[in-house]
Amino acid sequence: MWQISLIPEAQKDILKLDKSIQKIVYAGIKKVSQNPLSKSEGGYGKHLGTRNGNNLTVFLKIKYRGIGIRVVYTLVRDKKLINIVAVSPRDDDYCYLIATKRKNKYGTALFSNGFLKLEKD
């Protein structure tokens, strides 16, 4: 199982959700942490791709269709670490915009460092 961390903004994203939705999101993140690699590598993740000229293929996502939420994350492969970057409504444009802003803010740290440890079981 991979370790899970969140950038501070992602932690705030989760705390804005209703408690019942938070439980579903935490459960999904925990499940994906068993194999967060992309589906092409046998994992659960799906690449974000490119949107509005922004190449976000380095990000992966978890979609929660029933609750309309998307979790965006990156991998620090050598540390077996997942960095949760955003938790947002499943509106593609909004999710891509948030991911782009946070990529610009944190840069390569998203792919080399851990942030806040996910404490929820």
How would you characterize the overall build of this protein?
InterPro entries: RelE/ParE_toxin (IPR007712), RelE/ParE_toxin_dom_sf (IPR035093). Pfam families: ParE_toxin (PF05016). The chain has three helices and eight strands. A six-stranded mixed sheet has the order 2-5-6-7-1-8. Strands 3-4 form a two-stranded antiparallel sheet. It has 121 residues and is α+β, with helices and mostly antiparallel strands. The chain has a single domain (3-116), classed as YaeB-like fold (2-Layer Sandwich), CATH 3.30.2310.20. The chain has helices spanning 8-15, 19-32, 92-106, and strands at residues 3-6, 46-47, 50-51, 54-55, 60-64, 69-76, 81-89, 116-117. Strand 5 and strand 6 form a beta hairpin.
Give a quick set of tags describing it:
121 residues, alpha+beta, YaeB-like fold, two-stranded antiparallel ribbon, RelE/ParE_toxin_dom_sf, toxin-antitoxin system, RelE/ParE_toxin
